[in-house]
Design brief:
Strand content of chain B: 25-35%
Shape of chain A: globular
Distance between the termini of chain B: 35 Å
Structural class of chain B: alpha/beta
Structural class of chain A: mainly alpha
Order of helices and strands of chain A: HHHHHHHHHHH
Radius of gyration of chain B: 22 Å
Largest sheet of chain B: 6 strands, mixed
Number of helices of chain B: 11
CATH topology of the largest domain in chain B: Rossmann fold
Largest interface: A-B, 29 and 30 residues
Strand content of chain A: under 5%
Number of strands of chain B: 13
Oligomer: heterodimer
Distance between the termini of chain A: 28 Å
Number of domains of chain B: 2
CATH class of the largest domain in chain B: Alpha Beta
Number of helices of chain A: 11
Strand order of the largest sheet of chain B: 5-6-7-3-8-9
Number of domains of chain A: 1
Helix content of chain B: 25-40%
Radius of gyration of chain A: 18 Å
Largest sheet of chain A: none
Chain lengths: ~240, ~300
């Protein structure tokens, strides 16, 4: 029998050997976290959110790094396409579904790594939560990453290996800024825009740490809508891509 | 009637759009390959070989005609793991070693070869731990071969397999093909080297301008494409006039120069010099494939 797990293992291996991962998805968010949250470690109510600075930025930068890590699958896909790997894959029994599953799973492993690293960093700055809250918060963050996993695949099949890097960097920056990763967004037009973005809800998962509900109906709707929308577009980009080559 | 067990290409056609108008890459191809046979698709660049290979593998859908591989559509043969292919742009992923890449591919197939055996058959045993991004062109090509082999397919499709290989690698490569062919594997390879088709195929299918122009044993094909071409600088003489020279089958003009495809180049040359003393820079040579194909397909463009 064919062995998708063994196949996935090599996908992971390749990803871990890529230096970009360590710099942008792990190193960068970690350094920024200490740079931003470190000086504010005694701030217990950041910008009127009721959330402490170490917790807020822990989730914010975990979201930032994980977004980047998950979107990174797009960079790998574009690079694979440029060397004709997808044509080769189409000559194997690998189904489209398994192909997507492995891509998403690999992306998530990278995202989870970033999140775990930022949690550790958070703990060093005194973030302290109940075990149940950690779990609930992590669950929301993982669900909130789903749109980005789909967007990564979309970028990978839509863009060339030259343009995908800047596109991912730019998308992460915009999503992070407008979603409230760098500073809390609590009112006005910015708030309206933010609420329509999945990145905002990633950061909002921090509310769980206060014993509050993370997302209301709007949050769930936005995340689901982005996931479905991006997945449909990704599927279409994949179909178009494989028809052409 | 029992379902065909080999490959059947029937009336295949494929046209691509381009800024200069539609390009008819393949215009009506019929080819049969029996199980266990080794068949060469021989033709110059642009003959439609790669497009034919793509349609055979199900990578492109024909505009017209049918493809049958082992009695079914190519997708079924592919998803059953019965087809291995070495594509021209075949993927060699970076950030893996040679062995890892072959093992990664093996993981996708239902009954793969032992990874070490595939590496050995493709002469990669010396460099199994090298990263794929550090391979030479020839090594890369051998890695593609290993990737095609490791699936343990019944049909191997090789598109220009020896490009970039040195003489030694080529010899070893063909000896492996021969060995696998003896085990009953079916081979279809596209090439523009007459010598390779001649030396290693049971049968040669000659392609030009998207059509099959000849299909037969290598010796017969060699006789067809073994004609000569006379070139000369000769301005101001009409092509019709030149085509009436004895021994000339086809004339072409390229600027001030003319190229005469000849069935009897000696006769053509004598008459050319006698009749056109202005002819200079005269050159006679065995036709390359391109020229041979020009002759073979000279009548193609006459409207039916």
């Amino acid at each position: 029998m064919s062995n998708p797990l063994a196949y996935a293992r090599f996908e992971l291996l390749r990803t871990f050997r890529n230096r970009r991962l360590y710099i942008f998805s792990l190193g960068f968010p970690l350094v920024l976290y200490y740079a931003i949250a470190g000086p504010n470690r005694n701030e217990h109510d950041l910008g009127g959110t009721g959330i402490s600075a170490p917790l807020y930025f822990m989730v914010g930068l975990a979201a930032f790094g994980a977004m980047n890590a998950v979107l990174g699958s797009g960079a790998r896909i574009a690079a694979e396409r440029s060397v004709g790997w997808n044509r080769q894959l189409r000559l194997t029994p690998l189904s489209t579904r398994t192909y997507f599953r492995v891509k998403v799973a690999t992306a998530y492993v990278m995202g989870i790594l970033t999140i775990a690293l930022l949690y550790l960093a958070g703990a060093t700055l005194g973030v302290h939560l109940q075990a149940g809250d950690w779990l609930a918060m992590t669950g929301l963050v993982l669900i909130g990453l789903a749109p980005f996993a789909a967007l990564g695949i979309l970028f990978g099949h839509l863009l060339t290996s030259d343009s995908v890097g800047p596109a991912i960097g730019g998308a992460t920056a915009v999503f992070a800024l407008l979603g409230g990763t760098w500073f809390p967004i609590t009112s006005g037009v910015m708030q309206k825009i933010a609420e329509a973005l999945p990145s905002y809800w990633l950061v909002q998962a921090a509310h769980v740490g206060l014993g509050q509900k993370g997302w209301g109906t709007t949050g769930w709707l936005v995340v689901v809508a982005w996931t479905v929308g991006a997945a449909v577009l990704a599927r279409r980009a994949y179909a178009r891509d494989t028809r052409r080559v | 009637m029992a379902p065909s067990s080999g490959i059947e290409l029937r009336d295949l056609e494929k046209t691509f759009g381009s800024p200069a108008g539609p390009v008819r890459a393949v215009r009506g191809i019929d080819v049969d390959v029996s199980e266990g046979e080794t068949v060469a698709l021989l033709g110059p660049n642009g003959a439609g070989k790669s497009t034919t290979v793509d349609m055979l593998l199900g990578l492109q859908r024909p505009d017209a005609g049918t493809v049958s591989v082992f009695g079914g559509p190519p997708e079924r043969a592919v998803s059953g793991g019965r087809v291995g292919a070495m594509l021209q742009e075949g993927g060699v992923l970076r950030d893996l070693t040679v062995r890892e890449l072959v093992a990664m591919m093996a993981a996708l197939f239902p009954r793969p070869l032992d990874v070490e055996e595939a590496l050995h058959l493709a002469q990669l045993s010396e460099i199994v731990d090298r990263r794929t991004e550090r391979l030479s062109g020839g090594e890369r090509q051998r890695l593609r071969f290993a990737v095609a082999l490791v699936s343990n397919p019944d049909l191997l499709v090789l598109d220009e397999p020896t490009v970039g290989m040195d003489v030694e690698s080529r010899r070893a490569f063909w000896s492996t093909v021969h060995e696998l062919s003896a085990r009953g594997k079916t081979f279809l390879f596209a090439t523009h080297y007459l010598e390779e088709a001649d030396a290693y195929a049971d049968r040669v299918v000659l392609m030009a301008h998207g059509r099959v122009v000849a299909d037969g044993p290598p010796t017969a094909i060699k006789a067809i494409v073994g004609s000569r071409t006379v070139r000369a600088t000769l301005p101001g003489v009409g092509l019709e006039e030149l085509e009436r020279l004895p021994g000339v089958t086809h004339a072409e003009r390229r600027g001030e120069g003319v190229a005469l495809g000849c069935s009897d180049s000696d006769a053509a040359l004598r008459e050319l010099i006698a009749r056109y003393p202005a002819a200079r820079d005269i050159e006679v040579r065995g036709a390359g494939l391109e020229e041979a194909f020009v002759q073979l397909t000279a009548d193609d463009e006459v409207p039916a």
